[in-house]
Amino acid sequence: MIHFAGLTLPLLAATMMIAIQAAHGKLDEDVYETKHVAVVFRHADRAPDPVELFPNDPHYESEFFPYGLGGLTNRGKMREYGLGLFLREKYDEFLGQLYRPKAVFARSTDYPRTKMCLQLVLSGLFPPQAEQVWNKNLPWQPIPTVYEAPKRDWLMIPEECPEYLHERNKIQCAMSKELKGYDEFLEKLTSLTGKDMTGHNLTEVYNLYHILTAETHLGLPIADWAKDYYPHGKILEVTNKWYEMFSKTNRMRRLNGGKLLRQIIDHMDAKIAGGDRAYNVSLFSGHETNVAAVLQVLGIYYPHVPAYSSAVIIELKRKVDTGEHYVEVIYRRGIPNDHETVPIPGCDPICPYDKFVGLLEHVTPTTEELACDKDAPFETNEVEHVC
């Protein structure tokens, strides 16, 4: 047996390994390997949507050339591509260099901007390498994605489901006394915008916030009166109230962001079980409503509007020495491009998988709740009848 300063060779090797791991802040009991990454993200900078336009807007007649109404801007394309680069850098070793079709699930809503953003993120994640290079002048490769028509996209657009709308209308009724406090402000906005902003569903104020954001990011001047209420102030306050109503109860959370959570848990379960259809990466390209809804079901939402290219990352980890699985939730704010691990209530930042699933059981929909009964006897405009 060879000795070095009183240490046997095997003991020396073990000592060196511990020293190396300690230098990187990783002792054996803290070493994890990534097993699955799910990302729910918002599209990036865009032109105003048609539903957001108001008559007194100085840009009311604009076509927002060359992007068109609701179109993704060049700045937005760069921002969303940057999200793909961020994910590539963070998970480079886990992803491997080559795109593997069976390892990636990529879904968007049926909007041009969210479809484009999904392609941009995939472009940053999987530039062609080695034998996948098909054009040396184009560092890009086509990657298939899926989406549902809006009227049937109950996973990412719950507003299309009568059952969810019924629950939201009940909340609007329950909050009617509180919402009356905004009546005077809503009437004032109606006069300033030339568009009816009254009504306690607050959707038109929500739309107003987003058109002002879109125009600001395009570098366009907004109306002088708007500067008294935006980007901070009463318009943001009312918009935050809209998000509060969006997923107010556990029932609403199950019918809203809970459906995405259930999909992600199903993908993680498949990965743990080692099935043939076990994805490494699940991407969901949507809207700020999707990001907010997932934050709400995780219990980590705070009053704010998720920014362009913001993302919730849910990472499944396996502890190397025990084989046990854990979950880490990361929130990337988009603007600015910082990110942090956010522990869900009742658990550590690196949360045991079974505990994670158990803590969120009350906001995870049943199989019956995943479906949407379009023939349910609910009226989408029932508020005036039930309040």
Automatic annotation (TrEMBL):
Could you say which residues form the signal peptide? Answer: 1-25
The answer to whether UniProt assigns keyword GTP-binding to this entry is no
EC numbers listed for it are 3.1.3.2
Catalytic activity reported: a phosphate monoester + H2O = an alcohol + phosphate
User: Which terms does the record give in the GO molecular function aspect?
Assistant: acid phosphatase activity
- Which CDD domains does the entry mention? HP_HAP_like (cd07061)
Q: What domain of life is recorded for the organism? A: Eukaryota
Keywords attached to this entry:
Disulfide bond, Glycoprotein, Hydrolase, Signal
Q: Name one Pfam family in it.
A: His_Phos_2
Instruction: Name the protein family.
Output: Belongs to the histidine acid phosphatase family.
| Xref: PANTHER family | ACID PHOSPHATASE-RELATED (PTHR11567), PROSTATIC ACID PHOSPHATASE (PTHR11567:SF211)
Name the UniProt record assigns to this protein: acid phosphatase
